[in-house]
Amino acid sequence: MEFFRKTLDPIIALAAIAVLDIFMFLLMGAWTVGGGETMMTGLMAQAVLGDELQRIPFWNIVFPPHADYWKIYISLGMLFGAFVGAVLSKEFYWRVPRHLSEWVLITIGGLLMGFGIRLAYICNVSTFFGLMPEMNLGGYLAMSGIVAGAWVGSLVYKKLLEGDA
Amino acid sequence: MTPVVECLVAFLFGSVAGLLMQRSRFCNTAALRDAIMFKTYRNTKAMLVAMMILTVGFTGFMSVGAGHPLQFDVGLNTFAGLFLFGIGMVLAGACTVSTWVKAGEGNIGALWALIFTFVGMFLFSLVWSASWWPPAPQTMTGQINLPALQLGFANAQTLQDKFGVPAIVFGLAQTAFLAMLYRGILRRERAQHAEHEKHQKEHQKKKAARAAAVEA
Has the ipTM of the complex gone over 0.90? Predict the structure, then answer.
């Protein structure tokens, strides 16, 4: 099938996602990522710590873990959809970062993303495709934050690249 | 809707979105990073188009009271959290969405980023349990609360209620602004293209001159 041979124009892809997102907004709410991951974190922590988790107030008050939280399934869906797309277009293969520096950057980056999402109550998808289109004040705050962060991140990244060379 | 139906709808949406992002190689991180670092706008343009469609759609339905907008107070933590997130996504080379998509393509680095996103969230849960800041959703008031560095809650709906003008009017204004940004990018791309062609022509001329000199 043509769809699995050629790269799709991202404008078409995102326009289609936007239309679907409007339907989901009418049913449940806009596309977000972060809430689902937090719930997964809570469920995993509960599996490891059991009732001990109750001693951390965050998991009692802000995010009591439960598995029927719809946002979890957006993320699992994305994993599934991307897997199907990659397999059908023969683009699935194991990619492993080669250098130790990559592993370090990914680790720091992941930690900052997780911490940042919970501090803000949102991630970048809910910023651009949720809060901003709802014209939520938080969207403009978050937008300024992420652009400033991406700029600082790019500076750091450039410095590191130059350091490698 | 029952929670099970919600989860099914969410999974369906996620699957289609994941498939489309995999096929188009769309990445939110690239939309910001490439514009800043490399002055290329392939993903930025797609992001702007989606934002325009969504702004019209969301504010349109919000004008008649339909839809489920996000409801929580925002404040300094919104800015600070996304600032940290912005640094993190550039370092990790992917945002939360693209980590899922890339993990689906077999990228172990993306899976590693995801694992540490979970770890980061857990670390935050410990910090929150000591600081109790930002305020928990149950204690959010929707009002400005400066001691807690909170600015309350405002969106197209509250604008409509306050000014008596339908939310879609504000939405159209925002869409017009996004469209201006989009046109600015197109103009910039055309300028880059013209510059590139000029360079190539000069290069060819030099090559021809050199060839002529060798022959002579």
Answer: yes
